[in-house]
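Box 3.1 — From sequence to structure: Ubiquinol-cytochrome C chaperone family protein
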Amino acid sequence: MDALFGRVAEASRRPALYLEGGIPDSFEGRFESLTLHMFLVLRRLRELPAPAGELSQELIDACFGYLELGFRNGGVSDIAVPKRMKKIGQMFYGRIQACEAGFAAPQDEALVETLRRNASPSGAPALAAYLRAVRTEFAGLGLDALLHREPLFPAFASEEAAHDA
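Predicted structure (token representation):
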């Protein structure tokens, strides 16, 4: 799961998400991008047959270990880390629920509004299109492909696709 999480984290740091997707290049923005990418992988794991669903918790544990290490390396005291992690956990699960509701809504505007509120006021439509494209691409992946595909996520924009080619 650490390798899978590494690929998720790497995808969440793609410059196009910040430059073209309008995600702020800040701690909060990087958290939002990471959460969006985690949502997509967790969603696919939930859709796959066992043991995929059970791997979700391992992936979440890897993600929260990474976030906790970031706090500690950033100088947050040992006493304050649990409080910060609790707040991050609430934010993470809230974002996951909001994205799930956005996907479940019959109109695209619900997902766009969720992304506008949480990730990027200006880039929400492009981010929604990206999330839907990833969901479609992931729909064809089995567990083994999800665990080993390189790159795991498609390019965000045409410039990045041309650069990756």
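Summary of the box: The chain has one domain: 2-153.
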